[in-house]
Specification:
7 helices; Rossmann fold; binds adenosine-5'-triphosphate; alpha/beta; 188 residues
Length: 188
């Protein structure tokens, strides 16, 4: 019996993860959506956004906001980003991921060559003024007690691959800086 030739597969571009970390309200979700559109339309890339809030509705719905649960949440997102990235997809992660150790674990799991840590940078005072979900106000009123930046820690990256300061211009300007950074790193 003659063996069938395996079907030829289309070559794919290298996938990678864009891991956006930052305080609540710093601009991660806003930039993730803009980056998704830009990478699709201008660069013809397949993109998946892994937004912490969305993942918490499904894969991480059993998790809370303790240190251990936040770490586990980041671990699950890392795994999904890893399998996407190794299949040619750009995984755009929008996750507070407040602990340095979690982000180091993500880098290791996904692979340093496929991991771009982006510090979405805005001071607490600006994030609190923006307060897009009203959570800072709730935390100040004592209605929630595990708000990152107020009661819970945020460990800013010490050596991120890219930093996007979202206080110096609007989302479109930040997107431009992010895309330039990714090009500089040879990812686009
Ligand atoms: N340069 C900028 N980049 C991104 N967002 C900006 C910028 N300037 C102002 N903003 C505003 O800041 C807010 C950021 O909210 P966003 O939901 O993206 O934050 P987040 O980091 O995803 O927060 P969370 O961790 O709570 O989900 C939005 O209202 C956005 O319009
Ligand atoms: Mg968000």
């Amino acid at each position: 019996m003659k063996e069938e030739e395996p079907a030829a597969r289309e070559p794919r571009p290298e996938g990678f993860a864009v891991w956006m970390t930052g305080l609540p309200g710093s601009g991660k979700s806003t930039l993730a959506k803009l980056l998704e559109a830009e990478l699709g339309e201008r660069f013809g890339r397949y993109v998946e956004v892994l937004d912490g809030d969305e993942v918490r509705k499904g894969l991480s719905r059993d998790l809370g906001l303790s240190k251990g649960d936040r770490e586990e949440h980041a671990r699950r997102v890392s795994y999904v980003a890893k399998v996407l990235a190794r299949n040619g997809v750009v995984a755009v992660v929008a996750l507070i991921s407040p602990y340095r150790s979690s982000r180091a674990e993500a880098r290791e799991m996904i692979g340093a060559g496929r991991f771009v840590e982006v510090f979405v940078k805005a001071p607490l005072s600006v994030c609190e003024q923006r307060d897009p979900k009203g959570l800072y106000a709730k935390a100040r009123r004592g209605e929630i007690n595990n708000m990152t930046g107020i009661q819970d820690p945020y460990e800013a990256p010490e050596a991120p691959d890219l930093t996007v300061d979202t206080t110096t211009g609007g989302p479109e300007a930040s997107l431009e800086g992010l895309v330039m950074g990714l090009r500089r790193l040879g990812k686009l």
